[in-house]
Each structure stands twice: as C-alpha cells, then as structure tokens.
Amino acid sequence: MKLRTSVVFLLLVTVVAPIVLYTDRLGSFTTPSSSNEFIEDVSTITLGGDVRPLNLLPQEPSTTLKEPLGVVYLENSSISLSDSDASTQENSRKIRQLTQDSMENQTTLPSTRGDTGEHPHEEESTIRQVTERGLDINQGDITLEKPGVTSLNESREPQNDGNRREEIKNENQSAKTSIKAGTGEPVKKRNEKQNGRTVMADAHVRHLKDQLIQGRVYLSLTATRNNPHFIRELRLRMKEVQRALGDATKDSDLPRNSYDKLKAMELTLAKGKQIQDDCAAVVKKLRAIIHSTEEQLRAHKKQTLFLTHLTAKTLPKGLHCLPLRLTTEYFSLNSSEREFPNQEKLEDSRLFHYALFTDNILAAAVVVNSTVSQAKDPSAHVFHLVTDRINYAAMRMWFLSNPPGNATIQVQNIEEFTWLNSSYSPVLKQLSSPAMIDYYFKTRRAESDSNMKYRNPKYLSVMNHLRFYMPEIFPKLNKVLFLDDDIVVQKDLTGLWSIDLKGNVIGVVETCGESFHRFDRYLNFSNPLISKAFDPHACGWAFGMNIFDLEEWKRQNITEVYHSWQNLNHERQLWKLGTLPPGLITFWNSTYSLDRSWHVLGLGYDPNVSQKDIERGAVIHYNGNLKPWLEIAIPKYRNYWTKFIDYDHLYLRECNINP
Question: What is the pairing mode between strands 135-138 and 50-53?
C-alpha cells in the first residue's frame, strides 16, 4: 500500500505538475483564431503579459518604440506558433534581417491602427516596412519592386545614416499599397510616374494594332504556314483582337475584355516566334508590307482627290430644288411686287457698294446677311448681285421675300450685258471653243492632269470672269468691294473705302507665307513670255475680298491688259484656265497689300487654320473644294456659315435643306 502511494505521488510530481505549469503559461499567448484577426510584430512574443524580445534581434528600450502602422491579414488561415516548416523559417529569417536593418537606423512611425488598444506601444512593424518598400510576399519569396532598393537575398551596402533615414521617410510618405499575406497581390500599384516609367498615350490600342501586323507577318511566312494548328489559333486570335479593337482610337474606347485578348494574342505570337526564328525573313516581309501599304495609300489619296473634285462640281439636291421653288413663286407675283426699294441708291458713289457674282442663292444670302449684320449703318450699303438667266428669277424672289434690313439690293441678269460677247472678250471666245469644252468635261485625262483642280467646269462660267470688267458693269462708281460667294463677313468693312491705295488698282491680302502661293505655282515660267515679264518668286495674293479703285482702273486701262494676255494664252500655254493666274498677271505692279486680318483664307481646304486668326478676321474665306454648303465641308468651320441661315424658312424646309 505504501509502495502504491509513492508511485502515485511521483506520477503527480513528474507528469501532472509540468502539464499544469506549462498549460498556465501557454494560456497567456494571444493567438488569432480567425482570418479577420491580425498578426502583430513577429519580432516580439507576449508571454505572461511581458514583452520578451527574440534572442536574435537586438532591441532598443521599449519606451522609444511606437505602435506599428501595418496590418497584414491572412486568408483562410490561422496562426500556430508551432509551425516550423521550411518556408516559414525562411520568411522569418528574411523578416528579422529587414527588421534588424531598420532598427539599426532607428526608424519609428506613429500608430494609425484602429484596434481596441489592448497592447502598449511596440516597436515598428517589420511587415509594415515591407509594405512601405513595395515588397511582394508570395509563397515564401520576398522581392523588392522599388527601383534602387537592394533585394533581401543580396548583401547590403552600408549607407549614410542621414540619407537612409530620409529615404525611408520619403518611401513611407509615398506608399499607398497593402499586401495580402500568402498571396502577395498588391491592392494598388504605385503610379507610373513614381516607378520612373512613362506610359504612351493609348498604349493598348497601339499594342493591339501592332499585334495584328505581327499576325499578318506570321500568316505569310513559310515556316508558320506549314503548322496548321498554329495558323488556326492565330487566325482565331486575330479575329478576337479585331473585334476588341473595332473602331477604337483611344484606350477608353476598348471593351473590358480587350486586355485578356491582348494577353492571349501575346502567347500565340510567342509560339510563332518559336516556330519562325529567322529575323531576316520577318524583316523582309515587313518591308513588303510597308511597300504595299504605301502603294495603297498613294492610290487612295489619288482616288480621294478625284472624288473630292467630283463632289465639288455637283449641286446638292436641296440647292437644286430651292431655285425651282423660288422661280415658281416669283412668276406668281405681279409686276409691281417684283421691284426692289431704294433703287435710287444704286449709283450713289458716296455709299458703300459691293459686287457679288454668283448663281448660288443660299451662298449669296449668307454673304449679304453677314455683311449687313456687322454694318454700323446698313442703310448705307448697296449690294449688286449678278447671276445667270436660270437663277435670275429665283435670286430676286429670295431677296424680295427676305430683304436684308435697310440695305439696298440689286439683282442683274448677265444676259442683259449685251456688250459682253465673244467679239469683245477673248475669254468668252475661248470658253465656247470645242477644245475647251472637251478639256473640262472629258474625264479620261483626269488621271494624268496634275492640275486637276483647274478642270472644274465652274471656270467655263462667264460670271467667274466678270471681276475683270468692273468699270463696264459699274460705270458711275468710284470704288467697289468685290466679294466671293464662299465668304462670311465678321466685322464692319466700311474701313476699306477709306484706305489710300497709293495709285494702285486693287487692294489684296498677300498669301506668300507658303511656297505654293508664289507666281511660279500658277504660271508657266518655261515660256519666255512669262519668264521675261514676271518674277517666279513674287508674292501671290487671293481673290475673294478685294477693294477696287475703278477710276485708277480706267486710267491704267486694266481691261485691255487683261485682254492682251488672254489672247496670248489661247492654247493654255501660259497658265491653266481660272481667274487667279490671269489676275496675278493683269494686276502686276498694281496691287496694294492689305493687313492679313481683313481676309483669312483656307477654311475650304485647311483644317488647321488658327482659331485666333479666324476670330480676328474681318472676312473668312472657304476657298477650296470643301464648301460650307456641301456635306464634305470641314465640320468645325460650318457653324460660321450656317448661323446666317434660317433653316426654319418655309422654302428651305420644303427642299429639305438642313444644317
């Protein structure tokens, strides 16, 4: 019995007592029990309420340390202090090494954690430092993403203490990311500027287009064509990329799955590179593609030019309907209703007279309306319109039903100018010749004619040449302002009449800022008649808004000068037909240069006209083929023209004319 009692006592002492003792100590560990709890600094372990440092880490007094910023959560796991696998030990060793390095530099951060405050201030969290430095913790591997920071697997060079502290401070201030433990997936990357990388605008769109080019190369190479499985996969990927790309011009236009398509295409192209690794063959194919693309571009440009000129020659259906509708209304009026008021002002040289020669009713309305809207005294402005026999009644009806305020209107029929005939005007004789008609209307020569813009049949119109007969048309006037029908007036033009032309006949805005506006671009200087009389580098100018001194015109006999040069050009050896080349010749040494702000050109062909120039221009000119009444007009310039048209007008609605 005594022996049994002794054995029981020894068991109590040797077995039960140690279990009770260690169970009591282990109960003081604070171990997370769910994935929603967090791990504190692994450099300290709380035993029995005391903070005890690990032996491997040199510690500073706890009074100088502050609570850590970083909080790292575990996914679907709990922490067991008994884990001793190889990856955990490796992570712990790396973390301790980083912590030791930071402790040596005395780096502390204030706490921003919002927990229950169970623990006093502790030394800085090593895991937070890993986060601040942009570390990736993924399956036991720790790598540094920030450029210039040494990997933990590499030896560290000693740094100046002050510089090191400043570097860590800057990194801590700029860090905006946190890392999920066990996955290493950054929640938010640093922006590209902080990483020192410059991202090209719309990089994904460019990348997708480049992939399609690479795909076409691999489709044409012999080595890859012999691999049917790869070809099928490549074609499938190219279709996916084409669908994703669509009509996108910037990254924001791409669908959400475009990045997945890009990555899939990258993998397929990588396979192609393995199949065909001959760079010389790829380069040769790329050169062939570039050459083919250039040829296609050249052909498309030529076709576009031809179609643009063809469109410029055509009359929109609405503009064809409008004169028919107006003509019908005009002949329904009695004779007294067909007359314009204030006809006594037509020959008053004290007023401001405008000359406008056109068969386009809507264009004439814009010119008149815009001029009157800017005039300080509309009653002092007189508009002389000349049109052809077909549009005469319609033009009169439009301005009878839409009078321009207090301004005076005169509409004349060119058929009434009986003095203007082929016996008097050489140009009329030339325009009616079979050779000239063949030149303008036979399209078989269009491809070989480098001056295709001069083939427009508008040059067959006599009205286009009336500008050379100003004194004959307005015999009792001293000064006349000539306006083309494709202009818009933005400022009061009365100041032009007070300009002293200094003995010259015409006031012009020179256009020699660019080489193609000099004389040699319009005249044939290979002909001795031209080369002896003119300077090929002389500055050109533009018709469209020109002030004429008719008294000086008569004194210098300008009309006779025009006729003499037209007779010399009967076979178009000196210039192609048009009005500007003979204008440059006729008014040679008789032009007065006006300020460029009076006449701003290019809105009919140049999409890059300065907005500042347009806004300060007194007259803006849609010279070129892209007229504002055509659908091919440059969209951003159309509003300057359309705002002077009332599209709710009955006649416009009946003819389906819309802005």
Answer: unpaired
